[in-house]
Structure formats: structure tokens, C-alpha cells
Amino acid sequence: MDSTSLVTKMPHSNCSSTSFDETIVSSPAATSLGALILTVVFLLGFPGNLFIIWSILARARKQNVLTLLILNLAIADGSLMALTPFFIAYLVMMDWTMGNVMCKILFYLCLVNMYASIHLIMLMSIYRLVSVVWPNRISVITGKRTITRVLAVVWLLIMVASIPALIYREVKCKGNAPGSVCDSFHDKDSEVVLQYTLELVLGFLIPYTIILVSYICILRRIRQTKFRRRIRSEKLILAIVLTFCLFWLPYHVINMVQVAWALFPEGSEKRILLGKIWKRSRAVTSTIAFISSCANPVLYFFAGKSYIRREGLAFMARLFEATGLDSSRKSRMNSQNSRDQDKDAEVVLKDKDADTSTT
């Protein structure tokens, strides 16, 4: 008996005895493409997010609400980029050699990043909504103590919501090849439905619904006011929202496919077909989702390139300061416009009263 068959039949030292014939790292083409994408993402995203953090902490003269949210987003994305070399090694070797504890921790941190990114973007949209639609109340949420408490609560909820990754992630042996794989494994189909439905609802449907409603209200409010010029902060936040949706949508589509797979009975043709789809697509869609963490620095670069010649390395800090000024300026303009409308209404009422008394 050759050494390959011995390795295949004997349990891997880092995995349990349960084996699986097909995993997300079974396809050499998919894993090679994923490793290549992750390498490019790391080279762009890690230094890019570090530069954003440095720009805000060291070069920004004032830290407004939007700047603080962008700082937290860069910290979340930068943390994920720091983990990328582990996943590159995993895809290149097509074997998980870092043990069960690292399997759980690394994928837990990935899920935390996903929730953190979309919920921070949601907070940006809510902040823009309040500043445009209810400018008189913007001072309530712009205090440092208030925004710090909100961010603390959001991070706490995110860390709690990511616990399923610690529960369901596990190292298992491959069934038809040597080595092991770190993947989500469940004893029951109901556990599959619970995990991925939770990710879909908390990580996409609820926050994106709030984002869409916020922007619909913002656009309606802008149409009603005299000041309809587009503002830099709106463009920037909208670009961040669309970019996140573009790169994370395939991941959540595969989540829905896996949920549908779990709902069909064992052995059915639809279950077999859906199983092939999600197993072959999971590595690629997860890798594409990583791109969103390196896309924001690129967006900020193009948004702030007009500042480069004048500000040098501080160009990004000036961009964030300018977006904050746009927000406050827009709030003041809307507030002034509301007061003007109230004054106009008062004048009309006074004219009517005068006409009535004359009659």
C-alpha cells in the first residue's frame, strides 16, 4: 500500500475522524484563483487601511461623526486584511494545518468584520438621514459621548451575533484526499438554515433595508428644498454602500442556495444540484467578499485626489474633514430653509388675517 493511500485512510492529526468527499477547497482552479485574488487584496488593502487610520489619528484636525465612523470601518477592514495571509496559505496548500482553535477564531473574526462593515455603513446612512431630514436634531447624535456609546453597543452586538462561527466551524478530514478542511459542519439541516439565515438577515437584509429607506428619504427631502446641489459626503457614502453590496451580494446568494439545499430531502436531485453549486462557489464568493475591505481606500483616493497636490500625505484627512463640513453645512442650509418656509407661512397667515379684519 503506497503512502498516499495511508494518508487518505488515516485521520489527520488536526482533524476529527469524520470525513467529507467534497469541500470548498476540492477544486484546484477555484482555490488558485482565490489565492491570487487574496494576494492582490492584501497588497492593496492592508497598507491602504493603515494609511486611513494614520491619516485620521495623526493628520485630521477635527474628528467629526463621519470621520469617526470611517475610522472604525478602516480598523475593521485592516484587521481582516491582517488575517488574509492565513487564508492564502490555506487555499494554496488546500489543507488546513493551523488547528481547530485557529479555525474557529479566524472565521469568527471574518464574520465580525462582515457585520461591522455593513452596520457601520448603516450608521453613516442614518447620520446623513438625520442631518438632512431632521437638521434641528443633529446635535443630539453628534456628541462624542453619544457616538462612542453607540459604537460600543454596535461592536458588542456584532461580537455576539458572530458566535455561530465559533460553534459551527470545525476542522474535518477530507474523504477522498489527504489533508483537512476548516468549514461549517452541522449535525442537522436545521443548523444550516439557522446559521446562514442569521447571516443573511443580520448581515444584509436588515441593514440594507435601513440604508435604502434612508436614501429614499434623503432624496425626497433634497427635492423639497431649495438647495439641490450634490454634496461630496453623499457621493462618498453612496459609493461605499454600492461597493459593499457589489462584493458581498454573491456571498449572500450562495448562503441562500445553501439554505435551500438544506430544506430539500436527502438524495433528491435538487438537493444534489444545489450542493454542487454552493460547494464549488463558496471559496470564490468568500474571496470576492474580501475585496470590499480593500476597495474603500481606493474610493477615498479617487475622491480626494484633488487634495493631493495641495495637502500631500494629509490629503485623505482633508477629504474626511471636507465631508464633515459638507454634512454640517447641509444641515444648516436645511434648517435655514425650514425656518424660511415657516416665516413664509406666517406671512401668509398674517395677510389672511388682515384681509379678514378689513372685510
Write up this protein.
Helix 2 runs parallel beside helix 10. The termini are far apart. The protein has a 3-stranded mixed beta sheet. By secondary structure, the protein is mainly α. It has 12 helices and 3 strands. It has one domain: Rhopdopsin 7-helix transmembrane proteins. The longest helix has 44 residues.
Gist of the model:
With 359 residues, the chain is mainly alpha-helical. The protein has helices spanning 3-9, 28-59, 65-93, 99-133, 138-141, 144-161, 163-168, 189-224, 232-263, 269-303, 308-311, 315-358, and strands spanning 16-20, 169-174, 180-184. It has a single domain (12-350), classed as Rhodopsin 7-helix transmembrane proteins (Rhopdopsin 7-helix transmembrane proteins).
